[in-house]
Amino acid sequence: MHHVQDAFISYGRVDSRAFAKKLNDRLVEHGLDIWLDFDDIPLGVDYQNQINSGIESADNVLFIISPHSVNSPYCTKELDRALLRNKRIIPLMHVEQIDRETWQQRHPQGTQEEWEHYITRGLHSSFPGMHPVIAKINWVYFREGIDDFEQSLTNLLAIFERDRPYVRQHTQLLAKALDWERHHKQSRYLLVGEERQRAEEWLHTRFEDRQPPCIPTDLHCEFLTESIKNANNLMTQVFLSWSDKDRVFVETIRKTLMREGFTLWVSRSDIKTGADFQQRIDRGIEEADNIVYLISQDSLNSRYCQQEIDHALSLNKRIIPVLIEPTDLEEIPPNLRSLQFINLADNTVEDQYQRDIAKLLKILRQDAVYYEEHKILLAKALKWERQNQNPSLLLRGYNLRHAEAWLKIARKRDQHQPTSLQETFIQESLRQPSGVSLDVFISYSRKDSDFARCLTDALQIQGKTTWFDQESIAAGSADFQQEIFRGIESANHVLFIISPSSVNSPYCAGEVEYAVKLNKRIVTVLYQSVDPAMLPPGLAIVQWIDFRQNKGDFDANFNILLRTLDTDPDHLQNHTRLLIRALEWDSKQRDESLLLRGSTLKEVREWLLSSENKSPQPTRLQRDYVTASNSVEIQRQRSALRLQRVGLGLISAISLAAIALGLAAFRQYRETDRLRLQACKDQISSQTQTSEALFQSEHVLDSLLEAMQAGMHFQQQGVNDEKLQASVLTALQQAVFWVRERQQISAHDGIIWTIATSPDGKLIASASADGSVKVWNLAGTLVHTLSKKRGNQMLAVTFSPDGTQLATAESMDR
Q: Is 39 exposed, middle or buried (0-12, 13-18, 19+ CB in 10 A)?
């Protein structure tokens, strides 16, 4: 974090040394942090560098006006630096002029002739040599013997408070921009996340009814727009097409557009050394919303400009022609003559330039969302085509629904309709089977965007479907965080790029935390060295793939990553598919219609049996989902048995009781029986709740025992309550299904799906996925085994009322 100070004091030592010290002390008393060369320049350092750094790190520059300061080359340098950085400058009038007596005290040997020469040069007064910028700004008067110091100080403090947050952000962003510039404009020094969004809002701040306290520098604007570009996968809003001979004018319009917050593609800064020139030009056009064509005689004669315009036209791009010098319209290509021109060629004063630039800005902002979506879909479609229609690049989920809606609107437009490639790309995406999981979710810091993009491209070339936020979140998505969570849910792997930035990012930590919650397989890639102690808790035990090894050879290290990602893909895909279904079930209030059934449930059971010792393990939600599915399946198979318990026998018993006891006695009996049953129900309900609490706290065996007690009471007391029966069944089912204390019932070779207790409570029967039913006594001794039948799983078992027979339910091959 850069140290920011409230003010830098610039003064002339001869006239204002004592005043500067007094002012500094009083400002410090008010809690302000002030830069003054009395205290802030250590010995043995470059004096001018310290001065420059002090000015750049201060919100305000206080220029103390006196004859000496306005004529001092050192103060002039300080003022020039403040103006270069567009600092808020506050002039303080201290000494208007000095008289002969003061001059004589400073020059004891001085003559009248020298004094007159001094006056002739204007060195005795603050006015002749005053910088024009200082002359235009309202001063705070601190004239000794004339103005009240305390009142002037109050006025100065009020100026400090005016627009203070805006001025402070100017200083902080300038410091970061200078860092970026000093490090050769590397992308890892750009702004990311909320910090970038706040900076973008700051850049768009307008002071409609008054002068701004300070304005962004060109460096501010370039830094912020490059940060925005980096956040948008290097895509831009404007591609500038121009002739190299018009470089000076291009720089003017580039700075104007950046000041308005537009991201730009300009060949001189966006083509890296060693890159294929024509390929980069084409990509720049493809990945821009608009093409601004700067028309001059040279650009009309330029073969490169004509190629750029032809390529843009072939992609149905919006082209905005801008005349920058008088040109014969007949020389303009016929396909551009019908377009609306912006004429900057006749500008002679600044107001005319600003008027015409306003027209350009209006066009650029018109239908901006449409052209941004056109660009994004085109870039994806071209990437898909260039990778031989790589299916991993097709649209999915929200992006696909968004693209389909955009296409319907785009077809109705008169201009800049979708290309045939965009149409084909969207149609192919619609043909994909739904519910297919992704291979990799990429979690990274935006400061590492270059490496993340490189890794994403390499994975896609290898046929891996990736979730990369710069490609996977549709423009204008309202809920960024939910999109990220959905990406994690649908991916088989979460790939975390380790760097100092990512391990300190709260966003990355949140992604890891959510992935751990879902039991996702996490793969880590070491991009830059970090202290292992700084890793998020979910990554502490994950062995990373060091991309610095093999002498930093990307391909060699990438092959190691591929082998890791290709480990046990079927298990991961099943885990993801089950998770997605379980999450949908949970989000819709656990709607029974979304539960697993039939062959799908059977496949999940088989997967669970085969995955018991594999990683990742099922989540608690997945367990609950399978438990609920299995419970409903068992209930369906038991429905016939339940119906048999209801009928004429019950009616006959009630009739006989009524006849024997008489109507009044029967009513008393019925009330007594009702109270007994209610007490029993309350006890059973309490036991099932206790079982659930034990299960939630991972005491699964205790949960099972409590559920068994509830089941025994339910059977023994003859309770007829389907809702209570379901809760007892669920408690038993989930505890048995997920029990891990296998030594308690150790003779089964598979998961125990359900158990039953005999009416007298002395025997326990267990039905297992191994196809057997076993009967145990309360000491845990095996009493009897029912042989397997055709290898099917035993899903349910129950005792007959007299405890002498067993009824079973088994899975059937489908």
A: exposed
Sheet-wide strand order for 521-526? 466-467, 438-443, 491-498, 521-526, 544-546
Please, are residues 312 and 291 in contact by the beta-carbon 8 Å criterion? yes
pLDDT reported for residue 655: 45
The conformational region for residue 272 under phi > 0 = left, psi -120 to 50 = alpha, else beta, is beta
Give the integer Cα–Cα distance in Å for 314 and 60.
52
Query: Could you tell me what percent of the chain has a pLDDT over 70?
Result: 84
Instruction: List Cβ neighbours of 723 (8 Å cut-off, separation of 6 or more).
Output: none
- What the block records as the tokens of 59 is 């919100």
Provide the token pair at 712. Answer: 């025994």
Distance CA 706, CA 684 (A): 10
Which pair of structure tokens corresponds to residue 185? 């404009």
Tokens of 700: 């699964």
Cβ-based neighbours of 813, under 8 Å, separated by 6 or more: 790, 792
pLDDT level of residue 90 (50, 70, 90 thresholds):
very high
Query: DSSP secondary-structure letter at 389?
Result: S
For the chain, counts of helices (H) and of strands (E): 34, 21
H or E element: which one contains 402? helix 397-410
Contact predicate 483/456, CB 8 Å: no
- What number of other Cβ atoms are within 10 A of residue 372's Cβ? 18
Token code pair at residue 666: 């029967």
Mean of the pLDDT values across residues 127-138?
93
- Give the DSSP H/E element, type plus range, for residue 773: strand 773-777
Provide the b/e sequence for 474-494 (b: ≥16 CB within 10 Å). beeeeeeeebbbbbbbbbbbb
β-strand partners of 522: 494
**In the block, which residue shows the tokens 């800064």?**
269
Integer Cα distance of 274 and 279 in angstroms: 12
Question: Per residue in 326-377, pLDDT tens?
Answer: 888 788 888 888 888 899 998 889 999 999 999 999 999 999 999 999 999 9
Average pLDDT over residues 308-315: 96
Tokens encoding 782:
């095996």
